Amino acid sequence: MIKKIAICVLFFCSITMHAQLEPVKNGVYKWNELIVNKSEDRESRPILEGTSPHFEYLEIHATTQLPGAKPNAPNANDDIEECIIVKEGLMKVTNEGKSEIVGPGSVVLFMPKEVHSIENVGDGNLTYYIMSYKSKKPMNIERGEQSVGTVVYNIENLEYKPSSKGGGIAFFDRPTSMCERFEMHITELNRKGLSHKPHTHIETEIILVLSGDTEMMIDGETYNASAGDLYFANSQLLHGISNASDDTCKYFAFKWN
């Protein structure tokens, strides 16, 4: 009886927590302005939390594991999907007993219900962004598994393709358990100016700046960001990103619906 009451209380708290969340605001989230929560062998930086047009729950934070940090205990998310982006250091990622070591710029998509862990195996800090999300539509595990399931995208194995403005790396364009479409790539611009004309699309989009100075217009407002900063543009809003200097800039772009 007590166990049933406890489960009900946890379920009610989860529903209440999500019901109280506000939509994530458009704009820029600055790395240097993030609150840093420190423990013995880790640092955590909350970035954003709320809802979006396609997600009933969306949360992004950055974790830093210091050298020699105790590995994360293996865990599985029941109804949450995760996207991990390595910012610095060497990460040993283990999923369902299989491990791989990846470096900065690599990405991991963790499907729900799969046991995984992350460990710092380098001599310096391991810092990574974690995007956790739950769709407003029912979770579709079969769809995610049919589209490869959990995948480690090691940047060392991906092709850089030059363009007239610089170049880029395609990571994936696929369905997942939570997304009908989730697309991710890196763009590099080697001169000042727009990546492309301002546009709209059904997907919500995040731009994560890796290097250089950028400028982004979102719904008539203009923002600036440099390495570590993140832009957020909700579905159907007019937006466009530019290289703000004559030096090269590089950024992740990822969008979903």
Description:
The protein has 257 residues and is mainly beta. The model is unreliable at 1-17 (pLDDT under 50). It folds into 2 domains: 23-153, Sandwich (Jelly Rolls); 157-256, Jelly Rolls (Sandwich). It starts with a helix and ends with a strand. The longest helix is centred in the first third of the chain and has 18 residues, at 2-19. Helix content is 9%, strand content 48%. Strands 1-19-16-21-14-13-12 form a 7-stranded antiparallel β-sheet, with no helix packed on it. The protein is built from 2 helices and 21 strands.
Q: Would you report the number of β strands?
A: 21
* Count of distinct structural domains: 2
Mean pLDDT: 93
Please tell me what the overall shape is.
globular
Span between N and C termini? 41 Å
Give start-end ranges of low-pLDDT stretches.
1-17
What's the alpha carbon Rg, rounded to whole Å?
Answer: 19 Å
Relative helix content: under 10%
The chain-level structural class is: mainly beta
Key terms for this structure?
mainly beta, Jelly Rolls, 2 domains, 2 helices, 21 strands
Q: Summary?
A:
The chain has helices at 2-19, 141-146; strands at residues 27-29, 37-38, 42-50, 55-65, 81-88, 91-95, 98-102, 107-110, 116-120, 126-135, 151-153, 160-163, 166-174, 182-189, 193-194, 204-211, 214-218, 221-225, 230-233, 239-243, 249-256.
